[in-house]
Amino acid sequence: MSFSIGLSGLRAVSEELNVISHNIANVNTAGFKAGRAEFAALYSGGQAGGVEMNNVSQNFDRNGDVVSSGRALDLAISGSGFFVLSDSKGQVAYSRAGMFQKDADNRIVASNGMALQGYGVNADGQLVPGVIGDLKVTAANVPAKASTKVDFVANLKADASKVDTTAAGYTFDPNDASSYNFSQSGKLFDSLGVEHTLTHYFVKTGDNTWRTHYYVDGKPVQSGGADQVQDLVFNADGSLQSPTGNVTLNLSPAGANPMAVELNVSGLSQYASDFNVSRNQSDGYTAGDMTGVRIEQDGSLMAVFSNGQSLLQGQIVMANFANASGLQQGDNTTWTQTFSSGQPTLGVPGTGTLGSLTSGSYEGSNVDLTGELVNLMTAQRNYQANAKSISAADKMTQVLFNSF
Q1: Selected residue with higher pLDDT from 101 and 224
Q2: Which residue ranges does the record assign to the Flagellar basal-body/hook protein C-terminal domain (predicted)?
Q3: Looking at residues 365-385, what average pLDDT do you find?
Q4: What is the CATH number of the domain that holds 273?
Q5: Which of 56, 259, 333, 387 is most buried by its number of CB atoms within 10 A?
Q6: Is residue 216 located within the same domain as residue 255?
Q7: CA angle 294, 191, 143 (to 5 degrees)
Q8: The pLDDT of residue 374
Q9: Both 245 and 231 in a single domain?
């Protein structure tokens, strides 16, 4: 009996050495989770029968270090959860290895070729939640968009000098700095993507009253056959009294569609501080080609274009399990669900129990190399001890045979 007990110990420790060696070999494998050999005693008819390796459990409770890579499609999960992957046959797997890339079909895929899963977008670029599929980048370029509104937020210096617009010979002239107090320029884009310069000229006409002249590309904006101007009236507390709505600028750029630009001036104020503009932004842009992709913390996949615009391409979906230890190992960095793991709980990063994403990084192995080396030495001693028990049993058997 002692021979078989010692032999079972050698076999079990040998399997433990395989687990430890596997951990050490994968100390630099992204998303790898360290395994641990778990043993169980063997009994036969109430008599001790040795030991066997009952299970290899993996440590999902400890995250690996976040390794910065600088690659836009590398992702690290901070917290719980798994990436959801699918192959061409529809087989689903789960992974913590966040080293992704684009394939020939512009899908976002892992190193094993399985496609990252998430919510897609419709023809209008709106996210379609509830429908999970392969994430891919579909936009190669973005057409020009004509400006339809401008948000203008500024402070006009309350104690600025008045300009006597009633004086004989006074004429507003953008080339004469004495005919106005302040000016500010911003960009507009027509339907062809051609850039135009909109300049605001502010003239203080009295206490709490100003007049604005609008010029595009150095020419005054016309309204009813005359230069378009706008009178501004401020309250005694510095807030804008009028106009109460947007100012509409009607433009006719050459070769492009007519434009009606809504100028939002509700953010104007009049205080004694210096003239400053905190926002002068239109919603238009020129055409652009895709220059790259980026992934937000909430898993939003964005295509980035040369004109500075970004378009939503989809959103990553993650999964979590009530018993992650019950997952079945596929390869070093993927797992599949089992009855023991339970059904996956799906959601976007940062919601529920799911962790958030860090772009430009990936999660390294959670193997504790120092601890594995200690385990290795302990396993070696256990192996030697079991071998010693077999040697001792052999000597006792020889003594018994020699006694006859």
Answers
A1: 101
A2: 359-400
A3: 91
A4: 2.60.98.20
A5: 333
A6: yes
A7: 30
A8: 94
A9: yes
275 and 294 part of one domain: no
**How many of the other CB atoms lie within 10 Å of CB of 395?**
10
Token pair for residue 211?
């007049």
Q: What is the mean pLDDT of residues 387-394?
A: 78
**Mean pLDDT for the chain?**
91
Is residue 389 predicted with pLDDT exceeding 90? no
Band of residue 327 on the pLDDT scale cut at 50, 70, 90 = very high
pLDDT at 169: 86
Q: Which residue has the tokens 């002068």?
A: 280
Same-domain check for residues 197 and 241: yes
**Whole-angstrom distance, CA of residue 344 vs CA of residue 306:** 39
- Structure tokens, 293: 């992709």
* Phi-psi sector, 373: left (phi>0), alpha (psi -120 to 50), beta: alpha
188 lies in the same domain as 120: no
Domain count across the chain: 3
Q: Is the pLDDT of residue 103 over 60?
A: yes
Q: How much is the pLDDT for 402?
A: 73
Regarding whether 197 and 273 lie in a shared domain, the answer is yes
Residue 334 structural domain: 67-140+290-363
Same domain for 187 and 162?
yes
pLDDT attached to residue 404 = 63
Helix axes of 369-402 and 2-25: crossing angle, nearest 10 degrees = 160
